[in-house]
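G., the chain you wanted modeled:
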Amino acid sequence: ARRILDQHDIIAIESQTQADVAKAEAAQGLESSVPWPLLLLPAPPRRSELPRGQTHLSSFL
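Predicted structure as tokens:
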């Protein structure tokens, strides 16, 4: 069933589209800002994997 869209429907669709575009642009910007060699580094240890008493990664330095 089709219905005619009113002004509020159109504004909501446009707002959602703008939000989706902004999210995509932000994700693309973040993706392009990460240096590729950084991707080869291992992930930092999880809090549960740290020795007791060491809650910050700076304690390794």
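The chain has a mean pLDDT of 81.

Shout if anything looks off.
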